[in-house]
Design brief:
seven-stranded parallel beta sheet; OB fold (Dihydrolipoamide Acetyltransferase, E2P); globular; binds magnesium ion; six-stranded parallel beta sheet; binds adenosine-5'-diphosphate; Rossmann fold; alpha/beta
Length: 723
């Protein structure tokens, strides 16, 4: 189909329905006059192939012409934008293979020199008489006004007040002015039929959204910045709505096809457990247990994310879920990412369940103790065989382990509830593998726990296939952790003194060494060096232990045992201790080169202290942290609230890192930002949910459904779900 065939001028055409995204998608950009072979190739280099791609190739910024400076007003050392005309272009080879292009521009008030180093293509980009917008910092050189390597946009002889500037590539030979011309043409040739709007008017009204035709028009050529914001809101909503429709439809499809277990949530085992705890549940725990229990009582398999800060009491919730399975005659499994963490969980859960009995199946009157087992790669020989047999026969009620649980040969009698701890270490595939360990007829319910909170709106997109429960309240009595940042040598010396003082009072300490991405062995070497130095110097005379990823599991376990039992005063470790290590007597943590860690990881590490009754400290060593690294450290000093930190992290890093380092490319998420558009994420999710409640297959919203298929590259949804 070509643009001219759908948009000619006769009456018959004017009567045809408005243009849809699918129609724009079917038109190659070459239907536009001015786009020939060469330009089509240049456009393809920025992934613009169809007219739809062009219409969703949005300006990266806008220039408000009433807001620009005059050359004579420029101040030395200050960044500014001017609009000027090119007077001359002169290019020169420097020594080596370096080049310099010198351009002179002027406006009615004066002249300005532009110097470009090593951008030889500027010579071709710029020519006498062109109108350009220049951003840069003025420096005076031999009494002349000049800017070095400024940003230059070609604007042509624009008349509008607001001038859009497109992402352009000098190398691909695309200029913002050309793109504008093509967009103009596409919009002009769409006027007669108009652009179709698949979003029901009631929904648009509800959110104060402008019509789509107007939005597409105004994002490209807004008359005022306010109009541009309205256009952006509308298009952001469209992107997020399509994403949420896809995520929710997928989730519901899974729910429909999977048969779950309707758990017995009225049994008394759970009640006996909660009343055996030495403390009342926090109200957040009660709420979350309510959410989980409601899921378990449904015939649909649960698929829920439990997020809660370190120490928020997630284990109790996990145990309640597993016991719910057990009281109905099923089994529970908890999978942890590491050996150390699995063992830790095993010890903790066994203590929590101590003394709990369940009815014995072979006798109506007798009770038997609840049976809990640990299965890791370390479990071998007869022990392993026995555990595997007991899992298959149902003699074991709850099993805790590592990846071993999803290995071949591990079969369950009736796996009812699966808890996966620390989701960021497992992929979707592993969750699925454990889920598949359920019986043929019914899938187990899955609860994923994470101690790395992410902001709610990010959770709605990143974990779009999961329901989310949040433990947003700490149990009483946790000692606050005071965090300090030691940035100078004297401050660092104070930190080591403080470690000695804590040890002097019978407490213990962690020293965490920097993350080294390149390799395990380099990391092991570096932590060993630190260990040796501290032992010889700052911490001489103390009992110092060493833990890193290169040790065998048995060696790791024995070091951890020694630390737990108080046989070591200071544990020098890599981030292997990041999760799950629980030694209440450890009251101080020193993080070496703290600026090399991210916020989430520092927070996670810090959670290893403050677990007992004693006041606790976290000391961040970072001598020359500046910029964002310094902001991160300041955020950690300021708050211990994981959710506040997650927000700060999002602010500092941008959503890019939450969504991963992904090339945005032709993703449907061109405008929406998890950071800027939090409210829109919530509204879009809600709107998508309501729409699908009403019309599960979008039968009555066929155009919207086709857009979801057309625009959302599978990647968008898949990517967001893999995390
Ligand atoms: P998380 O897994 O969320 O980091 P845990 O489940 O390990 O936290 O709990 C941390 C500590 O708090 C444990 O020692 C646990 O027994 C205790 N705890 C859990 N819930 C409560 C509560 N409601 N009141 C007091 N202490 C609690
Ligand atoms: Mg269920």
């Amino acid at each position: 189909m070509t643009l001219s065939s759908v948009v000619s001028s006769d009456q018959e055409v004017a009567d045809r329905p408005p243009l849809t995204m699918a129609e724009f998608k079917a038109m190659n950009v070459e239907v536009l006059s001015g786009v020939g072979r060469a330009k089509a190739k240049a456009l393809a280099a920025v992934e613009v192939e169809s007219v739809l791609d062009l219409l969703t190739y949005y300006p990266r910024r806008y220039i408000d012409r009433t807001n620009r400076a005059a050359i004579s007003d420029l101040e030395d050392g200050v960044e500014a934008m001017v609009m000027a005309r090119v007077d001359s272009v002169f290019s020169k080879r420097l020594r080596g293979s370096r080049t310099m292009v010198r351009v002179t521009v002027s406006d009615d008030t004066g002249r300005l020199g532009l110097i470009f180093f090593n951008q030889p293509w500027r010579d071709r980009q710029l020519s006498e008489g062109q109108e350009v917008v220049v951003f840069g910092k003025l420096d005076r050189y031999r009494g002349q006004n000049q800017m070095t390597n400024p940003i230059v946009d070609l604007v042509g002889d624009e008349t509008g007040r607001i001038v859009p500037v497109y992402p352009q590539s000098g190398k691909a030979g695309l200029q913002t002015r050309e793109i504008r011309r093509w967009v103009d043409e596409a919009l002009r040739r769409s006027e007669q039929r108009g652009i179709s709007d698949p979003i029901p008017e009631s929904l648009r009204k509800h959110h104060g959204l402008i019509d789509r035709h107007q939005a597409i028009d105004s994002i490209h050529r807004p008359e005022t910045m306010d109009v541009h914001y309205a256009a952006r809101n509308r298009l952001v909503f469209d992107e997020l709505l399509r994403l949420q429709l896809k995520l929710i439809m997928r989730k519901r499809a899974v729910e429909q096809s999977a048969v779950g277990i309707t758990h017995d949530t009225s049994g008394e085992l759970v009640d006996r457990f909660t009343s055996s705890l030495g403390f009342p549940l926090t109200s957040a725990q009660r709420r979350v247990i309510g959410e989980v229990t409601a899921d378990l009582a449904r015939p649909v398999p649960m698929h829920r994310l439990l997020q809660g800060d370190v120490g928020a009491g997630k284990t109790v919730v996990a145990v309640v879920a597993m016991l719910t399975a057990v009281q109905g005659g099923h089994q529970g499994a908890l999978m942890a990412p590491t050996e150390v963490l699995a063992t830790q969980h095993y010890l903790g859960v066994r203590t929590l369940l101590d003394g709990l009995v369940v009815p014995a199946s072979d006798s109506l009157l007798a009770d038997r103790p609840l049976r809990v087992a640990l299965l890791t790669n370390q479990t071998a020989g007869a022990e392993r065989t026995r555990i595997q047999e007991s899992l298959a026969s149902g003699a074991i009620d709850i099993v805790i382990g590592t990846h071993s649980l999803i290995q071949e040969g591990v079969d369950f009698s009736s796996l009812g509830v699966v808890v996966v701890d620390e989701q960021h270490r497992f992929g979707v595939e592993q969750r699925a593998a454990l889920r598949a360990k359920g019986s043929q007829e019914a899938s187990p319910d899955v609860l994923v726990m994470t101690a790395t909170p992410i902001p709610r709106t990010a959770a709605m997109t990143v974990y779009g296939d999961l329901d989310v429960s949040t433990l947003d309240e700490m149990p009483p009595g946790r000692t606050p952790i005071a965090t300090r940042w030691a940035g100078t040598a004297p401050e660092e010396a104070e930190v080591w003194e403080q470690v000695r003082a804590e040890v002097g009072q019978g407490r213990q300490a962690y020293v965490v060494c920097p993350l080294i991405e390149e390799s395990d062995s380099i990391e092991a070497r570096s932590v060993t060096e630190t260990y040796e130095r501290l032992q010889a110097d700052e911490l001489a005379g103390l009992r110092v232990g060493l833990l890193h990823g290169r040790l065998t599991p048995a060696e790791k376990e024995s070091v951890m045992d020694l630390f737990r039992s108080g046989g070591i005063d200071v544990l020098v470790a890599t981030t292997v201790i990041e999760v799950g290590v629980d030694v209440p007597n450890a009251t101080i943590m020193v993080i070496v080169d703290a600026d090399r860690f991210g916020i989430a990881q520092l927070h996670q590490l810090r959670g290893r202290v403050g677990r007992g009754i004693h006041e606790s400290w976290c000391c961040l060593l970072a001598a020359d942290a500046v910029g964002i690294a310094a902001e991160r450290l300041r955020a950690l000093v300021e708050t211990t609230n994981g959710f506040e930190l997650a927000e700060a992290d999002l602010e500092l890093r941008g959503e890019g890192t939450i969504l991963g380092e992904r090339q945005k490319g032709r993703s449907d998420l061109q405008l929406a930002s998890l950071r800027r558009d939090k409210d829109w994420v919530v509204w879009a999710r809600q709107a998508a949910g309501e729409m699908l409640d009403d019309d599960p297959d979008l039968q009555r919203h066929a155009e919207l459904r086709s857009e979801v298929e057309l625009l959302l590259v599978d990647d968008d949804a898949d990517y967001l779900m893999k995390s």
